[in-house]
Amino acid sequence: MSKLISKLKKINKNNLLKIMLLFIFYFIYMNIANFICQQLGKSFDLTVVLFADCIFMLIILFIYQNNIKEDLKEIKQNYSWKRVLSTILLWCVIIFTFLILANLITKLISSILGIASIDNAEKVVKTQDLYKISNFYTIFKTMIFGVIAEELLFRESIREIVKNKCLFILVSSVVYTIVNVIYTDLNIKFLLLNIISFFLPSLLLSTVYIKNNSNIVILMLIKFVYNLIPLTILILGL
After folding, report:
1. How much is the pTM?
2. Among 9, 138, 192, 204, which is 20 to 30 Å from 225 by CA?
3. How far apart, in Å, are the Cα atoms of 36 and each of 44, 47, 51, 199?
4. Average model confidence (pLDDT) for the chain?
């Protein structure tokens, strides 16, 4: 029994170390790419940014390839295509309904604080700015990187060390919120709105993940469809 406990502790430590290294790399991989460009005398342009994103995504896909294979196997065994489709549509409706309520909350708080409502502004502005620079990169960042790399990082990796479902939902949402908020306006009034705009959607996505037996593939499909609608609106200029 003592050997088993020791082994479990070692596994947890290894997982924790792996996740810490992943998050550190997530924070610095773009800086590494910029440093390499400087050393080579190359310009740090959108092509380099895209390449760096792809490298990070490939690395995390390699690390969690077995998890993805197992989840795909589970879908094939336990899900019909009708169940997959109904699950995606159901949760997309729930997410959009939830975000409408979250938007109303941010508007209410912003009116109380006497500032303009951000309506998830930081995220929307970033997407619009990306779209102005490159349509292709916007689609890649929203529909591929955001769906695959970020969900593996903020959901699948954290789930490896946080086994309690409720605690996982809270921890993954808090981590996602902190990572995104530090790049936004840290003014105390805007900070509160930014925390709400990032925390509530992440809380719901983590809940979706848990409700579907921690199946990351199902979550990716749901997020893909969820992201597709606003991106289509942005591209069409509606």
Report:
1. 0.82
2. 192
3. 9, 14, 12, 34
4. 82
